[in-house]
Amino acid sequence: MSTMRRPARVIECGQIATYDDADGGWLVDIRPIHRNGLRFEGFNPALFTEFHPGAIAQLEHWIRAGAVLALETEHRGFPSAVPALLDMMRGGNVGKTIISLTGSS
After folding, report:
1. Which pick of 8, 68, 92, 105 has the fewest CB atoms within 10 Å?
2. What is the dihedral of CA 38, 11, 92, 85, to 10 degrees?
3. What is the Cα–Cα distance from 17 to 26, expressed in whole angstroms?
4. Which CATH superfamily is domain 1-68 in?
5. Measured distance CA(7)–CA(35) in Å, rounded
6. Consecutive H or E run containing 97
């Protein structure tokens, strides 16, 4: 951020893995934001629902073309649901967390 210049903005997203950290989670030196006149904004996809259909279509195209690799952490069986959720909240997953119940015992 120290090399960024106005009217740049810093986008914050993906802090779920730090929500329960004792020290408050993500720590950053915000002095460059003030010194360089930057904007700091949170990002939430729910704020842009009008773009979802087009974004999903584009991502599907890229995945089918092999331009984007969809990473997943898969857990199998209903008993793995709670550990999988806890693992995801700790940041222990890669990509999307999936709990597969089909064919589980």
Report:
1. 105
2. 130
3. 9
4. NAD(P)-binding Rossmann-like Domain (3.40.50.720)
5. 12
6. strand 96-100
Give how far Cα 48 sits from Cα of 39, 59, 68, 76, 94, Å.
19, 16, 22, 33, 24
- Nearest CA to 97 out of 64, 66, 75 is that of 75
Q: Which segments of the chain have a pLDDT < 70? A: 17, 24-26, 103-105
Helix (H) or strand (E) holding 100: strand 96-100
Token duo for residue 2: 């120290």
Which residues face 97 on adjacent strands? 73
Q: Return mean pLDDT, the chain.
A: 88
Checking DSSP bridges between strand 39-42 and strand 9-12, what pairing results, if any? Answer: parallel
- For the chain, domain boundaries: 1-68, 71-105
pTM for the model: 0.50
Q: What is the C-alpha to C-alpha distance for residues 80 and 99, in angstroms, rounded to an integer? A: 7
C-alpha 64: how far from chain center: 22
